[in-house]
Amino acid sequence: MSQAEAEHVRWRELFVPQYAASLALVCLSVWLHAADSLLIATMMPAIVADIDGAELISWTFALYEMGSIVAGAVSGLIALRFGIRWPMACAAALYGLGCVVSAAAPEMWVMLVGRQMQGLGGGCLIAMSFVATSLLFPSRLVPRVMAAVSTLWGTSAFMGPLIGGLFVEFGSWRGGFWFFAAQAGVLLAWLCFFLRLPKGSGPDRAGQSGAGTAPRLPGLRLLLLSGGVVLIAFAGIEVSVINTTLFGGAGLLCLAAFVRLDGRQGQGR
After folding, report:
1. pLDDT for 210
2. Nearest to 234 by CA among 221, 216, 246
3. What are 42-78's pLDDT values in tens digits?
4. SS3 of 83, please?
5. Which residue has the higher pLDDT, 261 or 175?
6. Would you say 207 and 80 are in contact if contact means Cβ atoms under 8 Å apart?
7. What is the three-class DSSP state of 195?
8. What sign does the CA torsion over 121, 183, 96, 188 have?
9. What's 38's DSSP letter?
10. CA distance 193 to 74
11. Mean pLDDT within 111-121
12. Which residue, 210, 252, 215, is CA-closest to 231?
C-alpha cells in the first residue's frame, strides 16, 4: 500500500458492518489480557484479608506474566497448525476457567493456579489477535486496527485496577473475576458460533491443509523459557545475596540456552 493510499484510509471504514464485528473481536481479546494483568493490584488487600497468603502476593503477578510470555511465544506455531478459530476458542475457555478458579479460590495457592491459567489464556489471545488482524482486515486497514489496539491496550491497563477497586468498594473482590469470566464466555461463544473467516486464506488455510508441514512445537525451548522466567521471578521475590544470585544465574542460563537453541533452529541445524 502506497503512502497516498494510506493517507486516504478513514477511521469510519473500520466501523462498517463488514469490519465492525471483527474489530470488536480483536479489541475484546486485547482488553481481557491487558485489563486483567493489573486487575488484582487494587483487590489484593481484600484478597489477603479474606484468604491470607500475603507471602505469595508477588507470585500472582509473576505467574500471570510467565504464562503470557510462554503462550505468546508458541501461539504463532499453533496458528500455523490449527488456524485461529479453535486455538482462540481454547484460549478464551482456559482464560475464563482461570477466572472462575480465582473467583472461587479458598486459599492463595488456588488463586495462583487461576492466575497461571489466566496468563496462558490471555497471552495466547493477545498473540492470536494480531494474527487475526492480518486475516480479517485488508492490508490498507491494518495500520488503523493496530492503532486502535494500541490505544485500547493503554486504556485497559488503566481500567483494570479501577474495575478491581470498584468491585472491592461496592461488592466483592470475587466479583471482579466473575466479571471477566463472563466476558471470556461471550468471546468463546462468538468464536465458536459467529466468527466468519475468509475461506482458503491466511492461517486457517495453513491450519486445514498445512498441518503436516508446519513446524513442530518447540517443547524443550518452551521449557527453558518458562523455567528461566520462573527462576528470575523467584530471584526477585525471595531477595537475598545467595538466593538472588543462584536463582537469577540459573534463570539467565536457561534463557541463554533457549536463545542458543532457538538460533540453531532458525539456521536449520
Report:
1. 46
2. 246
3. 999 999 999 998 888 888 888 898 888 888 888 878 8
4. coil
5. 175
6. yes
7. coil
8. negative
9. T
10. 25
11. 94
12. 252
CA–centroid distance for 187 within its chain: 14
Q: Residue written as cell 472461587?
A: 104
What's the confidence (pLDDT) of residue 1? 47
65 or 174, higher pLDDT: 174
The answer, yes or no, to whether residue 206 has pLDDT greater than 70, is: no
User: Pseudo-torsion of CA 207, 190, 22, 30, nearest 10°?
Assistant: -90
Please give the angle made by the CA atoms of 15, 19 and 23, to the nearest 5 degrees: 80
Backbone angles phi, psi at 69, to 5 degrees: -65, -50
Report the pLDDT value the prediction gives residue 214, as an integer from 0 to 100. Answer: 56
- Per-residue cell: 91: 484460549
Q: What is the pLDDT of residue 230?
A: 81
Which amino acid belongs to residue 221?
Answer: R
Instruction: Report which DSSP code applies to 60.
Output: H
Residue 181: its pLDDT value, please?
A: 96
Residue 62: Cβ within 10 Å count: 22
Return the beta strands (E) in 57-200 as ranges: none
Strands (E), the chain: none
User: pTM for the full model?
Assistant: 0.83
Tell me how far apart the alpha carbons of residues 25 and 183 are, in angstroms, rounded to a whole number: 11
The burial of 159, by beta-carbon neighbours within 10 Å (0-12 exposed, 13-18 middle, 19 or more buried), is given as middle
| CB 191, CB 89: distance < 8 Å | yes
